[in-house]
Specification:
This is Outer membrane protein beta-barrel domain-containing protein. It is built from one helix and eight strands, in the order H-E-E-E-E-E-E-E-E. It starts with a helix and ends with a strand. With about 120 residues, the chain is mostly beta strands. Helices cover about 15% and strands about 55% of the residues. It has one domain: Porin (Beta Barrel), CATH 2.40.160.20. Strands 1-2-4-5-6-8 form a six-stranded antiparallel β-barrel.
Length: about 120
């Protein structure tokens, strides 16, 4: 039993020393955290929408390009009547330029209204 009690501190010391070694061959990407906003306007069939960037799932294709499936909180103007709507659709980002294609469900006509437009991304 005496040998076992003297072996435990040696094993723990070995684990601590092993945990302190670093692997310098592995490349680690720095963590970046920040806020990103987008403001845009899109046009469709007798429709204008003023959009802001909402939540999105983004796939970065490089340092300048990314594609996303996004939600667009918007002020939708249909037949000269403005109403708040949430659109959904793809977006393509190139640096600060954003191409958007949001779709909005219109309750009165029971159809989807597709729009296309452009926006500006700011940080």
């Amino acid at each position: 039993m005496k040998h076992l009690t003297s072996l435990i501190p040696v094993l723990l010391t070995g684990q601590i020393l092993f945990a302190q070694t670093s692997d310098t061959t592995r490349h680690r990407r720095p963590l970046s955290v920040g806020l990103e906003g987008m403001a845009g306007v899109s046009f469709g069939d007798k429709t204008v929408a003023f959009n802001v960037g909402g939540p999105h799932l983004k796939l970065k294709l490089g340092s300048s390009w990314s594609v996303a499936l996004a939600a667009f909180p918007s002020l939708l103007i249909v037949d000269r009547k403005a109403e708040p709507r949430l659109g959904i659709g793809p977006r393509l980002d190139y640096r600060n330029l954003v191409l958007i294609v949001p779709a909005f469900f219109h309750n009165k006509t029971d159809r989807w209204i597709w729009t296309a437009g452009i926006g500006y991304k700011f940080h």
